[in-house]
Amino acid sequence: MTKWHISKEQYQTLLSYVGFGDFQKSKIYVFGIEEGLGGHDEESNIVARVEKFGSFDSNGNLTSALSPPNREQGYWEPNAQSGGQKIRDYIYKRDRTLLTGKPAKGAFNEIIARMCLELEQPKESKDYWFRLMNDDKDIARKIKDRIQTLFQSSTDDLLHTALTDWKPLPRRDMKKWPIEYQPTSTQFGLDSKLYERAFSLKYEQEFCDDNTNYTEDVEKRLAILRNLLNSTNSPIMMCLGEIPTKRRVLGKIFPEAEFRTFQSTVHPTHSSLKAEIQLEARTLNIFLLPFPLRTSKEWGRRDDINESAGSFMLRYYQELTQEYFKPIITTMNEFISKS
Questions:
Q1: Which of 38, 116, 121, 144 is deepest in the core (most CB within 10 A)?
Q2: Given the DSSP bridges, would you call strands 236-240 and 283-289 parallel, antiparallel or unpaired?
Q3: CB 189 within 8 A of CB 179
Q4: Model-wide pTM > 0.70
Q5: Kind and range of the H or E element at 289?
Q6: Cα distance between the two ends of the chain
Q7: Between β-strands 28-32 and 161-165, what pairing exists: parallel, antiparallel or unpaired?
């Protein structure tokens, strides 16, 4: 059996893949750096993204794209859960191995679910959705259930979210370069150092080799994401972690962006930044936020040493949701109801 290796055509298509969710309806657009593999291999992830991801009409034409039925200008998978199933379907077809999906989890998904629940179902007790998981098992279950409905279309009365990662190639480990992506004497591949330097946006020089022009690839992806953000309706972009890197990327997408700190009563010395971008039909509010991991140094900078880092972190995200996100979403909803 021939071992799978990424092709130039697959890589070029992935430059146009923008992520999971209902990009047309999303109110919170989440921006990350690089996708993982969901516990599967590189081949199944790449082939599914290139050939199966997206929604299609009765004639098999792609509809979830900026210029349907073409992928070139940007396309997406409307449902993160369905995307995972498409990967598993490919594995079954290839290996005859039947896999079942595992519930999504992790600090990243948890804080987004908490914030969505606060915006969808505010409670009289202001900290209701921001209590430690171990303190209330019923709330913990509701948060875990909401995680499973992130980044997808829904007929339920849910706040829609969408997720894009900056780098086009998914990896199991950001510190390791898969052999399936490496160039050989007879196969297309990507030089890890050139790829990383180009997508870091730290350098002014051009990066290219016989396989691809990495600098042109970066410019193509920047243009697609700029067009995507101009063509969709999300009033909020949320970035969790890696603030300097994301500030650099978003500064390239929106050169006019002026990132500034903002007031927080809970965490006056926070590292978060905010920018407002005036697009054609709306204001995009970009929030660069610390990663919601309790062991992060960010949450060690608290005045009350008797308060746990986890409680402090959740109080900060509670304040952020109620004082900043909620007014933006409310204003957008009022505008939609009047139009």
A1: 116
A2: parallel
A3: no
A4: yes
A5: strand 283-289
A6: 58
A7: parallel
